Amino acid sequence: MEFLIPFLPCGRPARTFAPCGKIAFQAGAPCRSILLTGIAITAHTLPLDNAFAALPPAFYTRLMPTPLPAPYFVAASAPAASLIGLDAARLAEPGFVELLSGNAVAERSLPLAAVYSGHQFGVWAGQLGDGRAILLGDIATEHGPMELQLKGAGATPYSRMGDGRAVLRSSIREFLCSEAMAALGIPTSRALSIMGSQQGIMRETVETAAVVTRMAPSFVRFGSFEHWFYRKKPDELKILADYVIDSFYPHLRAAANPYQALLAEVCVRTAHMIAHWQAVGFMHGVMNTDNMSILGLTLDYGPFGFMEAFDTEHICNHTDQQGRYSYANQPQVGHWNCYALGQALLPLIGEVAEAQAALDTYQSAFAEKMNTLLRAKLGLRTQHDDDTQLFDSMFALMQTNHVDFTNFFRTLATLQVDAPEHDTVLRDMFIDRPAFDTWAAQYRTRLRQEHSVDAERQEAMNLVNPKYVLRNYLAQVAIEKAQQHDYTEVATLLEILQKPFDEQPEHQHYAALPPDWASHLEVSCSS
Ligand code: AMP
Ligand code: MG
């Protein structure tokens, strides 16, 4: 067998890592789900198919969600609901609360948990799988089928020592961030709703349970392919690759080597996704191959973070002590993960050279996308050879001054080419103001070269530099209120984050820097 996977790109030593997700008590409750019939939302209004269930049984385990005691509505996303033709207001109705908490299943639903494997923190972890997610099926939309998955819907054969549940805290974070990322224009899985329950869930302390309904055309991961490769099951590997190509990349059938073309396209999509992350300062805290979508979607929001005081070495996941998934490392880790996928697809691709050629698309796709996004962030309409130097000196300046990522880019739009004397607000973001002046002079020269018009540039920049992102402290406030059964802050944040580029002057304080109390906030794999 030929091996493709290189050493860790970040140059840090690999370490073994227990499954990300702290172990709590085993739920083990017998399945008591009922078939939801006779209510308007069943087979007729929620016409679920399950294309994934048409794969051979080895790919999943059919099972019902474990009912959640006395579920109640917490939140729903109107744009996500409209994607599947639903009115979000209806999701608070008892029928939907039952359905989206796993206490009832629609008539045509074939619930299942999928099996996959993966590399966790660079180490082969063997079999994982949907340990707490249950796929209900897919709904046809004008953009193709959309799968509905309940996260936190009870134990499955892949739960290992986990309880199959998710807590309200992490569910709110996943819900808000999925929808915020979509509004930022970043490829992502979506979040339809959160249903809560008073059921106690043991994490560091006892918390309460919740179920997030996630949506994506597919939840197949890089690790889904690795599973069959490491089990030496070429037939299943081919079935999965053919399913993915035929369902989501049908144009690749025309390629001379469709499996190589699949790898190349996934590399490009992954590179683009990570460039988008970097351009808004988003960090995925657990870029394990089991969390990498075969569709290039941001998937499995756990200990994620948005960059505040800029530090390229920032690690958003407290559990990631070695910083494998630091901001600076994420692009390279994305490439490493593509190598892991390439390794798994190698028996189908055939030649190492062909796999390598597909993998080589990653770096240029990333660099190209990143430069395009950065030019837009700086309001540049043309491309110059020394743009990279301008970007590098900007990041160096941001680094030494620990300037707030989001606010810096948003405020940069206020710069006037011919009026440095009006730079005060921007300039005051920096400790080393003369250093800022030097960079700003360079930037102004560049703007003059393309005859940039202040008002036009400002408008264009405000369409790509968000004013509002899901800062940890904002999520924390919403979580703490929700833990006291006040869900208004979750709804308010959702509304603000769905229009991240709008000024929303009435919500100005949501763009503020984190307060002092937030300095101790840490997010970990506990979810
Ligand atoms: P993650 O790092 O959260 O993506 O999870 C890694 C693996 O652990 C996946 O197979 C999850 O399904 C599983 N897992 C995480 N938390 C739990 C839990 N509370 N119960 C069961 N399985 C879990
Ligand atoms: Mg995961």
How would you describe the overall organization of this protein?
It is a single chain. The protein has a domain of 189 residues. It is 37% helix and 13% strand. The protein is built from 16 helices and 14 strands. The longest helix is centred in the middle third of the chain and has 23 residues. The two termini are 38 Å apart. The site of adenosine monophosphate has 19 residues, from loops.
In short:
With 527 residues, the protein is α+β, with helices and mostly antiparallel strands.
Largest sheet, described in full? 6 strands, antiparallel
Rounded mean pLDDT score: 92
Number of H- or I-type helical stretches = 16
Query: How does the helix and strand content classify structurally?
Result: alpha+beta
Rg over alpha carbons: 23 Å
Instruction: Give the % helix.
Output: 25-40%
The count of strands amounts to: 14
Bound molecules: adenosine monophosphate, magnesium ion
Oligomer: single chain
Order of helices and strands: EEEHHEEEEEEEHEEHHHEEHHHHHHHHHH
β content, as a range? 5-15%
- List the uncertain runs: 7-39
| Shape verdict | globular
Q: What is the distance, rounded to the nearest whole angstrom, between the alpha carbons of the first and last residues?
A: 38 Å
